[in-house]
Amino acid sequence: MKKYKESFKTILDRLHLSIKKNNLKNSKQREFVLKAIYDDGGHLSPEDIFAITRKTCKNSSVSSIYRILSFLEKEGFVSSIEVDKTGKRYEIASGLHHDHIICLECGRIEEFYNDEIEKLQIDVVGSYNAKLVGHDMLLYVVCEDCLKQ
């Protein structure tokens, strides 16, 4: 699912506004991190992002990637999911709701959306006389390929 509501240019324009709002210096490294995640369209670890950005930004470090990801998540440019003990995986915060299926063997992450599941969640919340403000569904599986091995 690599469909975004915004073009990369629009996201970059918002990033520049956010940097200005937070009185930060403009940093190409933030742009490289955002571009790596945008172009991949998947769920990258900070180490994956470091490996990608290191090719174009030689003075990159893993610690700077973590700081940048923290900023980008706080500002709503990326979202993260915690898939296992290895840490977070990052994706563009597209605004398009979806859930995740994660293989415990190979680590592959698939995105899905199901109207019936969404409706059931609203019904459950309604039965508690509450208002749903957000949710994350992570389904842990052993994928078809791993089952064959």
Helices and strands, with pairings:
Blueprint lengths: L7 H14 L6 H13 L5 H8 L8 H13 L3 E7 L2 E6 L6 E5 L5 E4 L2 H13 L10 E4 L2 H5 L1
Parallel strand pairs: 3-5
Antiparallel strand pairs: 1-2, 3-4
**Cα-atom radius of gyration:** 17 Å
From the spread of the alpha carbons, the general shape counts as: globular
Regions with pLDDT < 50 over 5+ consecutive residues? none
Biggest beta sheet attributes: 3 strands, mixed
Whole-number total of structural domains: 2
Mean pLDDT: 90
Straight-line distance between termini: 26 Å
Write the CATH architecture name of the largest domain: Orthogonal Bundle
Biggest β-sheet: strands ordered side by side in the sheet: 4-3-5
CATH level 1 class label of the largest domain:
Mainly Alpha
Say how many strands there are. 5
The count of helical stretches stands at: 6
* CATH superfamily caption of the largest domain: Winged helix-like DNA-binding domain superfamily/Winged helix DNA-binding domain
Estimate what percentage of residues fall within beta strands. Answer: 15-25%
Please provide a written account of the structure.
- This protein is an alpha+beta fold and 149 residues long.
- It folds into 2 domains: 8-92, Arc Repressor Mutant, subunit A (Orthogonal Bundle), CATH 1.10.10.10; 99-148, Ferric-uptake regulator, C-terminal dimerisarion domain (Dna Ligase, domain 1, 2-Layer Sandwich), CATH 3.30.1490.
- It contains 6 helices and 5 strands; from the N terminus they run ααααββββαβα.
- The chain has helices spanning 8-21, 28-40, 46-53, 62-74, 115-127, 144-148, and strands at residues 78-84, 87-92, 99-103, 109-112, 138-141.
- A hairpin with a 5-residue loop joins β3 and β4.
- α2 (28-40) packs across α3 (46-53), α2 crosses α4 (62-74) and α3 packs across α4 (62-74).
